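Support reply, case 0932

Customer input (verbatim):
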Amino acid sequence: MIQLQRMLLIGFLVSFMSVTSQAASFDKYFTKLIKFEGKGFGINQEIWGKKNFTKAEAFKIHRKFYWNKYHGNLFKSQEVAEALIDHIINAGEGRNSVNIRAFEAIIGVSQDGKLSKEDVQVANSFVKCEYVVNPYVNYRLHFYGSRKNAKKYPGWMIRARAFGIFDEENNMLADFLVLPDILIGRSPDEDLEEPTEELASKVD
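Our regenerated output:
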C-alpha cells in the first residue's frame, strides 16, 4: 500500500512538473526586459512616483501590473507571452485597446480589447508559436513605424524584432501582418472618436 502511494505521489509530481514547465515564466522575461529598459527599469515616475526604483521594486511592479494582469503564467509559450506583454509594457494597450485587439485579430477571437483567459487558451492551441509571435511582432513594427517620432527612436524597432522567431538564415517565420478591424475601418462594437486612417499615428 505504501509503495502504491509513493508511486502515485511520484506520478503526480512528474505530471505537475510537466504542466508547470509548459507555462511562461516572468523570471525568464524580466532578464530580457531590463536590458531594454535600462537604468530606470522601465518604471514611469509620472505614474509610480518621483523616486529611484530598485530592481526588486521594478520586478514586483512589472509582474503584478503587467505580467499577471495579462495572464502571463497561463501562456504555454514563453515567446507568445513575451511578444504581447512586452509591447503593452512599452506602448500600453493603446487607444481603444488597439494593441490588445491586434493580438485578438491574430488568434482569431472577438476583438473586444479585453484579453481574457479564454483568449489565452486559444493562443495556446496554436501548434507553432511563430504563427502568433511573428504576426504580432510585425504589428509592433507597423505600430512603431506609424508614430510621428519613429525615426527619433530606432530602438523601438530593434526591441520589437528581438522577440521575433527566425530560421537559421535569419528569415522571419510566418512573416505576415494582421491588423485589427479597428485599424482597417471595420469596428463592430464601437465608433472611433476620429477617422480610422489617423488612428495608427495617434495611438497612445
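We compared this against your earlier run and they match. Two observations from our side: Residues 24-199 form a domain with the Chitosanase, subunit A; domain 1 fold (CATH 1.20.141.10). The first helix runs from residue 2 to 21. Please reopen the case if you see a mismatch on your end.
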